[in-house]
Design a protein that fits this description.
- The complex is a heterotrimer, with 2 copies of chain A and 1 copy of chain B.
- Chain A starts with 8 loop residues before the first helix and ends with a helix.
- Chain A has 2 domains: 11-76, Arc Repressor Mutant, subunit A; 90-199, Winged helix-like DNA-binding domain superfamily/Winged helix DNA-binding domain (Arc Repressor Mutant, subunit A, Orthogonal Bundle), CATH 1.10.10.10.
- In chain A, strands 1-3-2 form a 3-stranded antiparallel beta sheet. A 3-stranded antiparallel beta sheet of chain A has the order 4-6-5.
- Chain A contains 12 helices and 6 strands.
- Chain A is elongated.
- Chain A is of the alpha+beta class.
- Chain B is mainly alpha-helical.
- Chain B is elongated and about 140 Å long.
- Chain B contains 9 helices and 4 strands.
- Chain B has helices at 16-22, 24-30, 37-46, 57-73, 80-97, 108-133, 163-177, 192-205, 222-241; strands at 152-160, 210-211, 245-248, 257-260.
- In chain B, a hairpin with an 8-residue loop joins β3 (245-248) and β4.
- In chain B, 51% of the residues lie in helices and 7% in strands.
- Chain B has a 3-stranded antiparallel beta sheet with strand order 2-4-3.
- The N and C termini of chain B lie far apart (133 Å).
- Classes of the chains: A alpha+beta, B mainly alpha.
- At the B-C interface, β1, α7 and α9 of B face α1, β3, β4 and α4 of C.
Chain lengths: 212, 263, 212
């Protein structure tokens, strides 16, 4: 057998459906296409997602990768006796949130937000879980390693992209994702802002942020 | 900024200590559970049950110092960073209460604001983490297919070999393994005696250097030529030994030159 | 997890769908029912099977147990074959040639002809390539397996039949039977010497060697 023959259009939706059903991992549109002899699968994916919407099984996109999963509202029926999900320490959940909302972020920046040193094992646990990866080094003195989340993180937490992180727009608008120094400078700047860093100042920050 | 730090709230909004008093014991037992002074401060600030932007830094400082003092009274061992924070907060409190010193830089209000901003950020991430953990998580709330068939790509070799390679390989097998048979054939030879007489007579008529091949019989059967060459070479050595001929060869395997010596 | 509450009828089809999707093994109707608080799932199973009929994924009953599977006509999507062109090794080429010239031939005979031991894998490669097959056993003590070429062998090498293989005399005329050492010596010898015992054959062999 030579290179797979391109799949005919009328079979394409079925082929994409079967491929994703059989796959053991989420697949990008490119990977599906490569598997199916180079067919354009965008429309088929959209059609399938619409077909499955509202069913007990759904087709979802997470970080540009697609997979089938059970509908969230049926969780109570499917939850198994032994939970498959790794229990994270409070420190690990906080670090994960900080990485997700601030990425890419260095360890020093994580520690500045948490006010404590981060145990070596904390980031390791998140990397072992496949949710956090090293994303390079920051080009500042010392060239610290910086961390970011992975596609598996989005898959696990049911996020189509980082924009879906809960409350990220509000946090950004409130300046709560900016470093303390920036927020301090903004608060101490004009007399208006200084008047109420608790009030109008923040709202102005929100406006300017959302205009971005 | 006004004289009173904006972050300080009216007294009547403050209701912290009463609730904490009952929980003293629990608080101490939890001390190990806090991840550092900022964590403890955030917990205390949240007990004020107001928006973090409106907490009273002064009250917060008092509460923190109270707990540290009580912990010391109970001889609980406190990590150094809790004590460092206590010292810093004590300084902050005094600076906030004293008449404003224009020279102070950074101003106590700025320090208080910085602390407040840090608490806000930590609180924001703590909330975000909780919301994140509460999402529909794979393996807990939503599930993969239980037994996917899996996609496999089998790599299969497509072997290539051409006709010439095939018969050449066979030829070489046969050649490599063919029994080597040595047969002594009845072959044409030139004897040493005849070579001696032929070479010495030819040297007699020619004074120049001559290549040894020139002494071989012309138009000879190829099989005879090889024998003639060998015999003529031995004859040349014999003549040289007798002082009747000179031999010269400029390089290894080069042409062997021969010349007669007049007696 | 406590006892699952009975599922409302309108959700039952979705629940059965999700349950079977997430199940690691096929489930009987009774098992599904027990999982869903005792609901009668027969109608739901029938409805689901009808819904999925003709799709890329199907709900099938096998021995009273139900499971989802990729549609049989799309099974080829699950196992893609990718071909890699590989050149036959020198040893394998020799073995193939010996089989072609001497078939049917046992492994011991191949080794006797080659003068070296033949790795088991070499014959396996030739059988994988589809050029050599097991042609039975020789009725001698030990009943060794004997090998022969296949029709694919003839096709690949463009031969009408094995009789098209050049005979020993033709190989000799082409210089292909000259031992490598002799051919080499002839090539290094002077032209006069080459004239000697072996005649012109050496020179032709030398040419073919140097052409390699």
């Amino acid at each position: 057998m030579t290179e797979p023959a391109p799949v005919r259009p009328d079979d394409l939706v079925r082929a994409v459906e079967a491929t994703l059903f059989a796959a053991e991992e989420p697949m990008s549109a490119e990977a599906i296409s490569a598997h199916l002899g180079g067919a354009n699968v965008r429309d088929a994916l959209a059609e399938l997602a619409a077909t499955y919407a509202g069913r007990g099984v759904q087709l979802v996109e997470r970080g540009k990768r697609w997979h089938f999963q059970t509908a969230p509202d049926l969780a109570h029926l499917l939850r198994r006796e032994k939970e498959e999900v790794r229990r994270l320490s409070r420190a690990a959940t906080e670090v994960l949130a900080i990485v997700a909302y601030h990425e890419p972020v260095s360890r020093a920046e994580i520690e500045a937000i948490r006010g404590v040193q981060t145990a070596k094992g904390t980031l390791d646990v998140l990397m072992e879980a496949g949710w956090v990866r090293i994303a390079g080094r920051r080009e500042v003195p010392g060239r610290p390693v910086i961390y970011a989340t992975t596609p598996d993180f989005l898959t696990h937490f049911g996020l189509e992209s980082r924009r879906d992180l809960p409350g990220i727009d509000e946090l950004r608008a409130a300046g709560l994702l900016d470093p303390v120094e920036d927020a301090l400078a903004a608060a101490l700047d004009g007399p208006d802002e200084a008047e109420g860093e608790d009030g109008g100042g923040d709202e102005e920050a929100a406006d300017s942020e959302s205009a971005d | 900024m006004t004289d009173t730090p904006a972050i300080t709230l009216p007294e009547d909004d403050w209701q912290g200590v009463a609730t904490v008093a009952a929980g003293d014991e629990a608080l101490y037992l939890e001390l190990d559970g806090w991840e550092g002074p900022l964590d403890l401060l955030l917990d205390l600030a949240r007990r004020q049950k107001v928006d973090l932007r409106r907490i009273s830094i002064l009250e917060l400082v008092d509460q923190y110092l109270t707990y540290i003092e009580q912990a010391e009274a109970l001889r609980l061992e406190l990590a150094a960073d809790y004590l460092v924070m206590a010292a810093w907060l004590a300084y902050l409190k005094s600076a906030l209460l004293l008449p404003r010193d224009e020279q102070a830089d950074p101003s106590p209000e700025e320090l208080a604001l910085r602390l407040q901003l840090r608490l806000q950020r930590l609180a924001a991430m703590r909330d975000a983490a909780a919301r994140l953990m509460g999402r529909d998580r794979l393996g807990r709330d939503v599930f993969w297919r239980g037994a996917p068939e899996g996609l496999r790509i089998d790599r299969k070799a497509k072997w290539q070999c051409d006709w010439f390679a095939l018969i050449q390989a066979y030829g070489q097998v046969k050649a490599r393994t063919a029994p080597v048979v040595h047969m002594v054939r009845d072959r044409m030879v030139m004897t040493l005696d005849s070579a001696l007489s032929r070479v010495s007579s030819m040297l007699g008529v020619n004074l120049d250097w001559m290549e040894i091949r020139a002494f071989l019989p012309p138009h000879a059967d190829p099989r005879l030529r090889r024998s003639a060459l060998a015999s003529s070479f031995v004859a040349a050595l014999e003549l040289a030994r007798l002082g009747k001929a000179e031999l010269s060869q400029d390089e290894v395997f080069g042409p062997l030159m021969l010349r007669g010596i007049r007696a």
